[in-house]
Amino acid sequence: MTTIAILGAGKIGEALLAGLLKAGRRPADVLFTERYPQRVVELTEQYGVRGVENDEAAALADVLVVAVKPQDIEPLLDALAPVVRPGTLVVSLAAGLPTSLYERRLPAGTAVVRVMPNTPMLVGEAMSAISAGSHATAEHLALVEEMLASVGKVVRVPESQQDAVTALSGSGPAYFFFLVEAMIDAGILLGLPRGVSTDLIIQSAVGAALMLRDSGDHPVLLREAVTSPGGTTIAAIRELENHGVRAALLAAIEAAALRSAQLGRAHEPSA
Fold first, then answer.
1. Is 174 annotated as a binding residue?
2. Which biological processes are named by the entry's GO terms (predicted)?
3. What is the pLDDT of residue 270?
4. Per-residue pLDDT tens digits for 66-94
5. Average confidence score pLDDT of the chain
6. What is the pLDDT of residue 231?
7. Any binding-site annotation on 54?
8. Which residues, 6 or more positions from 209, have their beta carbon under 8 angstroms from its beta carbon?
9. Which of 107, 105, 108, 65 is nearest to 89 (CA)?
10. What residues have CB less than 8 Å from 91, skipping those under 6 apart?
């Protein structure tokens, strides 16, 4: 069996760990690293997996999953560079970081696959996009797809599209949460108790998402099915258009993509 080490067992790292075990991987084949000793104890007790140091993970694992924050990547690569074994696959879940960064800092020929997941991984409903680095093979991509399928859906994209993916689906759940928050507040403004308003909006969001996924219909068709001539929905849509909500979303997602690109450029070598 392939041994997988998750470097950084935060929320996303733990979610992947749990998904791998649920999908049938043996606890003995999954390792993790974590800077806080109490967190190591908690995860070991909960999942039966072993917490190790970064150098031990590099010595034992066939796959190293980098699940640290982008600002923590430099010291991690400094620690890994002398100890990564030939043939190791590095899977990056760190937002904005290109495969070229890992290839430049790790031993020559290291295979790297870049992944942009999102936080619904915590409930097994992630949307993850993967891209191959210069040395990653079809077999490497297939292995990463298998791993990530344990926590949601997976698509392959060219790495040049990863900043757009980050802006759209990586950050995407936050946009939905923002919208739901505003709609709940609107219900309160109209006199509904917070609990009732919350239940109404959350279930509407769940139902709408399932219709989008399962019906196969374009969102425009689904929206038009709710929008009767001269009715309440078209009055609301007019106000959304008057306030530039569509344009604001386009601008917001474009800003997120630009920020993702900036995160990657921050680690480029100095001229």
1. no
2. L-proline biosynthetic process
3. 62
4. 999 988 999 999 999 999 999 999 999 99
5. 95
6. 97
7. yes
8. none
9. 65
10. 63, 64, 65, 66, 112, 113, 115, 144, 147
Closest C-alpha to 150, from 30, 28, 20: 20
C-beta neighbour count of 264 within 10 angstroms: 20
Asked whether the beta carbons of 7 and 64 are under 8 A apart, the reply is yes
Residues 6+ apart with CB under 8 A from 197: 183, 184, 186, 187, 188
Give domain limits for the chain: 4-157, 172-261
Question: pLDDT per residue over 139-171, tens digit each?
Answer: 999 999 999 999 999 999 999 999 999 999 999
Does 83 carry a binding-site annotation?
Answer: no
pLDDT of residue 224: 96
70 annotated to a ligand binding site? yes
pLDDT at 4: 98
Instruction: Check residue 245 and give its pLDDT.
Output: 97
Tell me how far apart the alpha carbons of residues 96 and 162 are, in angstroms, rounded to a whole number.
8
CATH of domain 172-261: 1.10.3730.10
Both tokens assigned to 23: 């999908």
What does the block give as tokens for 199? 């239940």
Please check if 155 is assigned to a binding site. Answer: no
Q: Are strands 89-92 and 30-33 parallel, antiparallel or unpaired?
A: unpaired
**127 contacts 169 by C-beta, under 8 angstroms:** yes
**Structure-block tokens of residue 119:** 């936080």
Q: How many CB atoms lie within 10 A of CB 177?
A: 12
Mean pLDDT of all residues in 204-220: 96
CA–CA dist 110, 143 (Å, integer): 16
